[in-house]
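Exercise 7.
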Amino acid sequence: MMYINPFRTILLTAGAVAAMTLTGCASTGDLARLQSQVQQLQQQTGQNQQTADQALQKANAAQSTALTAEQTATQAQQTATDTNQRIDRMFKKSMQK
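Solution. The predicted structure, written as tokens, is:
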């Protein structure tokens, strides 16, 4: 999806409106069309922000899941290490007898 910088778009639109107004070329229809474009751009900006917020929520959830998985793997590794150490001690004791 292409990101549209809302501030730049609004600034360019405002500049176009100002230029037309200063030159006296802006008709009521032109101004109405520009206002409509500004409204559409504002709606798009709102939709883009909503999409970005949803993506951030999903990324945060994925990060949380990954952290939980990492903690579980670390615990499993520690349990395996402890078990191997116990087995080694038991084997050494059995060899001493």
